[in-house]
Amino acid sequence: MFALxxxxxxxxxxAPPGPAGGRPGTSVPAGDAALSRQxxxxxxxxxxxxxPAFEYAYIPPASRDLKDIYRRVREADLWRQLPEVQExxxxxALPRRLRFVTAECGEPGAFYRPEQAEVVLCYxxxxxxxxxxxxxxxxxxxxxxxxxxxxRANVRFMVLHETGHALVDxxxxxxxxxxxxxxxxxxxxxxxxxxxxxxxxxxxxxxLRLVANWMLTRSTGAYDxxxxxxxxxxxxxxxxxxxxxxxGTDPDDFAGMIEAGDLTAARAAGCPRExxxxxxxxxxxxxxxLAPEREAYADEAVRYLERGG
Length: 309
Known about the structure:
This protein is an alpha/beta fold. It has helices at about 65-75, 85-90, 125-140, 145-170, 180-195, 200-215, 225-230, 235-250, 255-260, 265-270, 270-285, 295-305, and strands spanning about 35-40, 55-60, 100-105, 110-115, 120. A 5-stranded mixed beta sheet has the order 1-2-3-5-4.
């Protein structure tokens, strides 16, 4: 895909209040015809979708040190390299167009802006992820391609997490628990269901483990009242929740996770049921919103629900 010059930086998932709902320092124009790329992979006309197809854009940064990242992202056409995003493009009858943009944000982040119906991925986040991938590579003695894989795995999850926020908003989906936890679950399910054609299930699982690593490395372990009251679960909790979803897909194959300390035996015992319930819940929520020409998915979903998962 692309290589990035890297420096260490942090990551924040949700956008704090600011002008137009974005981050301080964020500038994402409502439209940029020169940079927007209409939805769908080649051969899939946007006009064929019953609702608005996705729209993609790459916003030039003002900071000189981000211009090379912008150039590489645009040349690689990053949005078209995310298999799950491409697969669900046109899948749902959305009431308005959902736009995916890369932009300079002033700090690392990825977030959904409901006013503009935009999922924003920050260039600073790409730099931070590549740096963490390099640290992970050096710590474990991994191959030279590891930083890029680390970056790509986490970008996929982050974008799907924010897409989950977008679907909840645009489709008015009910979420009775913490929405951040719910869209973490959806991101994992989408990666497991719609991984790239060249990927094996094991490779997708490995990517999810890289996501879990990022969650854990972002945690300081020093929590105060603000951390406990935050809308996001603690980093350690997000780590174990994701590990539970992974384990629940195949307890026999992933039995080693318990011995490795990636999951406690007590939590693991309920993970198959937890994974099944999570998947069935999201299928029930999204099934009524499938676009008419996605009948094959609708039929498959109905059969899945009828057989009890």
